[in-house]
Amino acid sequence: DGGITQSPKYLFRKEGQNVTLSCEQNLNHDAMYWYRQDPGQGLRLIYYSQIVNDFQKGDIAEGYSVSREKKESFPLTVTSAQKNPTAFYLCATGGYVVNEQFFGPGTRLTVL
Amino acid sequence: EDQVTQSPEALRLQEGESSSLNCSYTVSGLRGLFWYRQDPGKGPEFLFTLYSAGEEKEKERLKATLTKKESFLHITAPKPEDSATYLCAVQPPDAGNMLTFGGGTRLMVKP
């Protein structure tokens, strides 16, 4: 069953903690993306990776970090340096052949 | 700076009342324009890609059209299950496969 999985669905973080959001795909897409969505707003790009072991900052990368050690996986770490991390986080995939991006189900992060 | 503006921000319709959602953009040399549907608490679901002015795509009660400055998502005889937020995104010519998203239109269809 092909698709994109994100875990966990809900995540609670205490102030000062780092947390890692998982994104896995079996679509064989080269590119993977992380977006943040705040209530009533569009999607803003955090980081993206077009190939294994390479990634670039998006529009709002401060306070976040990523890795791309495998084609199937692109985890996002929300560090304590991110001052306002409460949001809905979306992972997407795409490729050189397809222009469209396809999204996972999302992770809702709440800071306690 | 590339901009994508969606209007209206919210739209309430009665079941069967047709209408259109607008997506205007300032990108020059557009590579593609994308429409997505997003249900509350879920990831966006891909609907359409449009590449050139005059192009149209249809799916059930939805039809997307594209001009040089804007795109419309026409909803014909909507049903309550069409209620969702509809997102528009553009792909600029020099940004690889990056997408720039609009703020979305929240559609509510009352029975």
Gap from first CA to last CA of chain B: 41 Å
Structural class of chain A: mainly beta
Q: State the helical fraction of chain B.
A: under 10%
Give the strand tally of chain A.
11
Q: What would you call the structural class of chain B? A: mainly beta
Q: How many strands, which pairing sense, and closed or not: the largest β-sheet of chain B?
A: 6 strands, mixed
In one word, what is the shape of chain B? globular
| Rg estimate of chain B, integer Å | 13 Å
Task: Give a structural overview.
- The complex is a heterodimer of chains A (112) and B (111).
- Chain A has 112 residues and is mostly beta strands.
- Helix content of chain A is 0%, strand content 50%.
- Chain A has strands at 4-7, 10-13, 19-25, 31-37, 43-51, 54-57, 64-66, 76-78, 87-94, 102-103, 107-111.
- In chain A, strands 2, 4, 5, 6, 9, 10 and 11 form a seven-stranded mixed sheet that branches. A four-stranded antiparallel sheet of chain A has the order 1-3-8-7, with no helix packed on it.
- In chain B, strands 2, 4, 5, 9, 10 and 11 form a six-stranded mixed sheet that branches. A five-stranded antiparallel sheet of chain B has the order 1-3-8-7-6, with no helix packed on it.
- The chains are: A mainly beta (112), B mainly beta (111).
Please give the structural blueprint.
The complex is a heterodimer of chains A (about 110) and B (about 110).
Chain A: E1 4-7, E2 10-13, E3 19-25, E4 31-37, E5 43-51, E6 54-57, E7 64-66, E8 76-78, E9 87-94, E10 102-103, E11 107-111
Chain B: E1 4-7, E2 10-14, E3 19-25, E4 32-38, E5 45-50, E6 56-59, E7 62-66, E8 70-75, E9 84-91, E10 100-101, E11 105-110
Parallel strand pairs in B: 2-11
Antiparallel strand pairs in B: 1-3, 3-8, 4-5, 4-9, 6-7, 7-8, 9-10, 9-11
